[in-house]
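Please decode residue identities from the backbone states below.
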């Protein structure tokens, strides 16, 4: 998951305990806190949206513990993101859901898991002289971007690369694992999900995202149809399937609503931004419009949840400290939507100013205090790079 809209900042500007102990804690918490509280594509019937929103049956998304802990790109606070090392560690820590992964296509149409189509910062591609001539500059959602792009590589070529830590200045310890894992395909993720479900005797959930779908559709590499085809192949396109799909582009979610029955979530960036599909189609609405009751009602006609940036839940002041919560949680719940905000990280540089400790921006701050404050708003879950911290914070919150 990452920022999308007409305004894009840096990749992070928007945004172990043992297995047995983590599993036991999840079971305890699950028992304690189960369930709480486009014109071009056309809108689905209200009946269909209501039917899927009611997917609280066995295995449905409403059966997840609340607040749900979602491993952001796996356990990306400890391993290079979107690798099986990161996904596996998130599960071992006890994450309820693993965000596996951000989906981008290859030249030959396979879906792979990378934070962005530009892979210069997340792989060792720059060290491969055979791919030096692939470096180029493209306009990605209105922003000139220079590097190497997945759509210029076949899957076989991408498989010769290895993942590296995306923010080594903030997480130098993660660079220990540079070069250890390859880029996973989404099909490999689905097989891994089944394998882990069997091994653990507990359903493993994943939370993929369609990345820059308007950009890729213009290249003839539409994401939604490819995603739907893979999900159908693996029998995971149903309303109770353990796969929640998200996107920053509402029309991508509308398109998916016609292709699959999975629970769907619209991601929301900063209030003053516009989803890129809105920009290209001339829709004047901003995220600020979408978080109003009317906008939320519109989202609820085809989706089951929203994934707002944490700043939409509790804004920050000019110094970066938290202020007063907005009415977004109550408004979204009134519209029948769940909220899974992003992204909680332990390092000072990513925490609200009033929860930072010491002067080292990369040292851990008072993450537990920040979690408690966000949980108190009534959010249904949260994306976190540090699933172990999030689970302990949830335990404190539930038992407090």
């Amino acid at each position: 998951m990452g920022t999308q809209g007409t305004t894009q900042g840096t990749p992070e500007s928007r945004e172990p305990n043992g297995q047995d102990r983590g599993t036991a804690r999840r079971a305890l918490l699950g028992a304690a806190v189960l369930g709480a509280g486009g014109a071009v594509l056309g809108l689905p019937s209200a009946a269909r949206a209501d039917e899927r929103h009611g997917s609280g049956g066995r295995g449905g998304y409403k059966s997840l513990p609340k607040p749900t802990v979602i491993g952001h790109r796996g356990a990306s606070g400890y391993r290079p993101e979107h690798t099986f090392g990161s996904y596996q560690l998130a599960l071992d820590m006890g994450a309820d859901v693993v965000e596996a992964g951000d989906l981008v296509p290859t030249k030959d149409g396979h879906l792979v898991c990378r934070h962005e189509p530009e892979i210069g910062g997340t792989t060792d591609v720059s060290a491969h002289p055979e791919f030096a001539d692939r470096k180029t500059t493209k306009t990605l959602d209105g922003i000139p971007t220079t590097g190497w792009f997945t759509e210029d590589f076949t899957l076989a070529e991408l498989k010769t690369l290895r993942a590296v830590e995306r923010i080594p200045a903030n997480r130098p310890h993660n660079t220990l694992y540079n070069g250890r894992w390859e880029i996973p395909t989404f099909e490999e993720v689905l097989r891994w999900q089944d394998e882990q479900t069997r091994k653990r005797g507990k359903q493993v959930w994943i939370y993929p995202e369609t990345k820059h779908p308007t950009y890729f559709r213009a290249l003839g590499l539409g994401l939604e149809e490819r995603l739907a085809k893979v999900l159908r192949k693996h029998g995971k396109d149903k309303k109770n399937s353990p796969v929640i799909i998200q996107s920053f582009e509402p029309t991508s979610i509308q398109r998916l609503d016609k292709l699959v029955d999975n629970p769907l979530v619209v991601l929301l960036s900063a209030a003053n931004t516009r989803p890129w599909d809105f920009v290209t189609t001339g829709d004047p609405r901003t995220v600020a419009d979408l978080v109003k009751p009317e906008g939320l009602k519109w989202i609820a006609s085809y989706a089951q949840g929203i994934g707002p940036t944490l700043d939409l839940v509790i804004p920050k002041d000019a110094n970066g400290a938290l202020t007063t919560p907005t009415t977004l949680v109550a408004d979204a719940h009134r519209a029948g939507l769940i909220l899974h905000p992003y992204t909680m990280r332990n390092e000072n540089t990513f925490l609200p100013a009033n929860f930072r400790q010491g002067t080292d921006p990369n040292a851990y701050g008072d993450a537990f205090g920040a979690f408690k404050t966000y949980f108190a708003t009534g959010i249904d879950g949260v994306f976190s790079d540090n699933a172990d911290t999030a689970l302990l914070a949830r335990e404190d919150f539930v038992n407090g």
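Observation: The chain has 15 helices and 13 strands.
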